[in-house]
Amino acid sequence: MSNKLKSAVVILCMSTLSFSFSTIALGQKTPSLKEVFKNDFAIGTAMNTVQIEERDPKAAILIPQQFNMATPENIMKAEIIHPQWDTYNFEPADKLIEYGKKNNIKINGHTLIWHSQLPGFARKIESADSFKLFFTNHINTIARRYSGKVFSWDVVNEALNEDGTMRKSVFLQKLGDDFVTEAFRLAQSAAPNTQLYYNDYNNEQPAKRAGCISLIKKIQAAGVRIDGVGIQGHWHLGKIPLKDIEESLVQYSALGIKVMFTELDIEVLQRNFQGADVSQRMNNAASLNPYPNGLPDSLQQRLASDYAALFALFLKHKDKIARVTFWGVNDGQSWLNGWPVPGRTNYPLLFDRNFEPKPAFYKVIETKEKFNKEK
Ligand code: XIL
Predict the structure, then answer these.
(1) pLDDT by residue (tens digit) across 279-288?
(2) Which of 40, 44, 182, 239 could be cross-linked to 69 through a Cys-Cys bond (beta carbons 3.0 to 4.6 Å apart)?
(3) Is residue 298 exposed (0-12), middle (13-18) or buried (19+ Cβ within 10 Å)?
(4) Burial of residue 285 (number of CB atoms within 10 Å: 0-12, 13-18, 19+)
(5) What residues have CB less than 8 Å from 87, skipping those under 6 apart?
(6) Peptide bond before 92: cis, by omega within 30 degrees of 0?
């Protein structure tokens, strides 16, 4: 090789090296959850309209960096997507599908059948026959339209009471006990290649879990497909039910289905009940909003340890888990600022109000590094 050629090769190698160093250095500034957990489970976020329309520039950068799945926080719920008997409002959901394609983010449709956020007309239907027609049309129309476009559906959301019995929802009253199986049967034929899930809160708790297992077995016994169960995961600081979660992972996966954590957030403010019944409210009082100007460091650290313990458990059982989805991108956008007490300043997620990673974020990443070392 001539000297000239040699030095050209050296220069080329050096510039390639320095290029890759600088990209690594840039990338290392903030690790990416979806990259860190890419061999373990998908990482999702709930998305609101502003984020779907990319009207929030910081969210528009952060979401594709950190997440590979998204669940619409509201726009696929019946009251929005199906406001009148014959009227469907597909535009927002179509935008989300486009957003997903563009950013390599798979979409979990949320949700076909849920007693909450139902359109007014559906609540007013009196005859069982008409209600059945609404139920059938609703699932067929929406599941067909997004077949092959969404990766998965929360086919039925929150059909159970805390004691594991069936909730006396309008669906149960009008259609009887089998409505869950029927919803999956319809979804299976309307969306043959879409993953179909049952989703609930507190279904890691023993009594509700037992009801959930019976429900899943019933669907399976009818020869109808169910691919997974979603545990919402609206938990509380210092009270993560790790033992119940672990037992649930083992018991649900024994049914031959995947487990998803679908709406993860950790409440740091006072609440006098557990779970996520959206119709439950608490009276407002200044004492219920103690940290309007920032979360004290001691609580940041406790939040970080709770998230670390949770992710250590997820990693231990990663073979059973398909996805972990946070219910929101950053603290400022979390529904827990408005529920069950309006106007609070809450801190349940991994990114703060400026989209900066919190100590809990770094603890989650550290948990994975530790897991790799101990393997
Ligand atoms: C919540 C949304 O985050 C809020 O914006 C909306 O006002 C009420 O619903 N369980 C679910 C989610 O399955 O759909 C709920 O989302 C939170 C509880």
Answers:
(1) 888 888 888 9
(2) 44
(3) exposed
(4) exposed
(5) none
(6) no
pLDDT of residue 306: 98
Torsion angle in degrees (nearest 10) through CA of 316, 375, 67, 24: 170
Token pair 């007693």 is at which residue?
115
CA-nearest residue for atom 3, ligand 1, is 335
What are the two backbone dihedrals, phi and then psi, of residue 49, each rounded to the nearest 5 degrees?
A: -60, -40
- Rounded mean pLDDT of 169-183? 98
Helix (H, G, I), strand (E, B) or coil at 103: helix
DSSP state of 333: G
Query: What DSSP state is assigned to residue 356?
Result: P
Cβ pair 336, 265 in contact under 8 A: yes
Ligand 1 test: best mutation among 73, 167, 229, 334, most atoms within 8 Å of CB? 73
- Separation CA 109–CA 143 (nearest Å): 9
Distance CA 258, CA 372 (A): 23
Catalytic one among 73, 182, 204, 263?
Answer: 263
Locate the ligand 1 atom nearest the alpha carbon of residue 327 and give its number: 3
Residues 6+ apart with CB under 8 A from 368: 36, 37, 40, 311, 315
Predicted local confidence at residue 46, as pLDDT: 99
Retrieve residue 77's tokens.
């719920």
Q: Are 227 and 182 in contact (CB under 8 A)?
A: no
User: What is the pLDDT, as a whole number, of residue 324?
Assistant: 99
Catalytic, 182? Answer no
Longest dimension (CA), the chain: 90
DSSP code per residue over 152-180: EEEEEE--B-TTSSBP--HHHHHH-TTHH
Verify whether residue 162 is a known catalytic residue.
no
Predicted confidence (pLDDT) per residue in 290-317, tens digit: 999 999 999 999 999 999 999 999 999 9
Query: For ligand 1, atom 13, which residue shows the shortest CA distance?
Result: 157
pLDDT band at 334 (very low <50, low <70, confident <90, very high): very high
Helix (H, G, I), strand (E, B) or coil at 2: coil
Give the pTM.
0.92
